[in-house]
Amino acid sequence: MRLETDRLILRQWEERDRAPFAAIVGDPHVMRFYTRTRDRAAADAWIDKMIAGLEDGGSAFLAAERKSDGALIGLIGTGRVDIPLRGDPPEEIGWVLGSPYWGHGYAPEGARAHIARAWERGLPELVAFTAAINAPSRRVMEKIGMSRDPQGDFLHPRIEEHHRLRPHVLYRIANPGRS
Ligand SMILES: CC(C)(COP(=O)(O)OP(=O)(O)OC[C@H]1O[C@@H](n2cnc3c(N)ncnc32)[C@H](O)[C@@H]1OP(=O)(O)O)[C@@H](O)C(=O)NCCC(=O)NCCS
Questions:
Q1: How confident is the model at residue 178 (pLDDT cuts 50, 70, 90)?
Q2: Tens digits of per-residue pLDDT, 21-65?
Q3: Residue 8 Cβ contacting ligand 1 at under 6 Å
Q4: What are phi and psi of 100, to 5 degrees?
Q5: 156 CB under 6 A from ligand 1?
Q6: Residue 179 pLDDT greater than 70, yes or no
Q7: Whose CA is nearest to atom 1 of ligand 1?
Q8: CA distance from start to end of the chain
Q9: 39, 91, 151, 169 — which has fewest CB within 10 A?
Q10: Angle between helices 135-143 and 106-120 (to 10 degrees)
Q11: What are the chain's domains?
């Protein structure tokens, strides 16, 4: 799967992405809304999982490459929801970018291309969720037209009790062609 926007190419993962991806997910500032950073082995395993998801159709978490210089800026994609959420939505949309690339609207730009593709695939809706305190990610959800579903707030089942990242918020967007 490959998508193109004005400034980005969203594409399959390649060997050359492994080092820059490990630098992104090994950065404590990038990962401050995750429970831990990833070392090289864990970053490689994350890429392997995204490749497997692309091959079996379970997910489309793609490498995001900047057209102007070929830099890997991070990941943007969609995939099956693997935790219980209100209304049993089929797929989520998500993003992780390296900090040098923040603030340029790249995440919303890539996400919009994925949303268009999801509607072409006939999906009824997409959701996104993040730690309630992750303001930048929530801004991206708002910018791409998602609406908060306050009744869908939840405590992340894989984060320990009382952890500051455990309370999560849920956002949704419906396929306009299916309403
Ligand atoms: C969330 C994320 C993908 C946003 O990507 P982006 O391409 O920078 O998105 P935008 O340029 O539209 O900026 C979105 C918001 O990020 C915040 N932001 C922008 N630049 C920032 C910076 N340098 N430092 C901190 N926050 C910043 C702002 O709140 C901005 O909202 P605004 O445009 O209304 O000011 C990026 O911040 C990121 O990768 N964060 C770490 C990983 C993560 O938390 N992923 C989500 C997990 S659910």
A1: confident
A2: 999 999 999 999 999 999 999 999 999 999 999 999 989 999 999
A3: no
A4: -65, -15
A5: no
A6: no
A7: 137
A8: 27
A9: 151
A10: 50
A11: 3-178 (3.40.630.30)
